[in-house]
Amino acid sequence: MKVMAQAIGAGLVTAALCGLLLFWAAGTFDYWQAWTFLAVYTTISIACCVYWGLTNPAVLQRRLRGGPKAETRIPQKLASTALVVAFAAGLVVSALDHRFGWSAPPTAVPILGEALAVLGFGLGVLSIMENNYAAANITVENEQPVISTGMYGLVRHPMYFAALVTMIGIPLALGSYWGLVGALAYVPILVVRIFDEERLLAQELSGYREYTRHVRYRLLPYLW
């Protein structure tokens, strides 16, 4: 229960920080797209924390060990920091777009964006359910197996694919086209992170080299 409470607390803090960035940059609380996104994110976050807290607390422990400080490799520290900056920048740009009306997309766009964000969150959940060793930082544990089923049979890094889908959905959910710049910035950062992660996995995770010969695509199915 302690781990569950910590995970829920971390999710609420993240939601609060996102809200602070969004409403500060927007200059108003009259921003229904932001309220909707925060409500959806908070609901999904708490639901996942409760589920794993009751069924597999080890998953929550692994997910809590995230961020630049948790990384042991310099490239991963840099990539993790860059991902946080890109995410925050995407929120701020989206809120500024709302404030100044740079793009002003129709109502259908935030609805589509919210659906994409939920899809991304869902794909991330499915990836973790398939691979309980999926941690928020780059590490290999004793007796950790290579997972090749489910989404891991399509791409080697389904968590990053899910994150990319989410990052495309969030600015649209916030009613912004310009916020997609943050999503574009995610791609080269993920490429750097993946190359370094695969070097570690090839060295320390038994069977990973063979797995890469069977699953060719790293991030995007049928592309790369």
UniProtKB/TrEMBL annotation:
Localization per Swiss-Prot or TrEMBL: Endomembrane system
Keyword field contains NADP: no
Transmembrane segments: 7-26, 32-54, 74-96, 108-129, 150-170
Protein's membrane topology: Multi-pass membrane protein
GO cellular component: endomembrane system
Gene3D superfamilies on file: 1.20.120.1630
Keyword Transferase included in the entry's annotation: no
InterPro entries: Metal_cation-efflux_comp, Phopholipid_MeTrfase
Sorted UniProt keywords: Membrane, Transmembrane, Transmembrane helix
Pfam families: PEMT
Protein name per Swiss-Prot or TrEMBL: Isoprenylcysteine carboxylmethyltransferase family protein
Organism of origin: Mycolicibacter heraklionensis
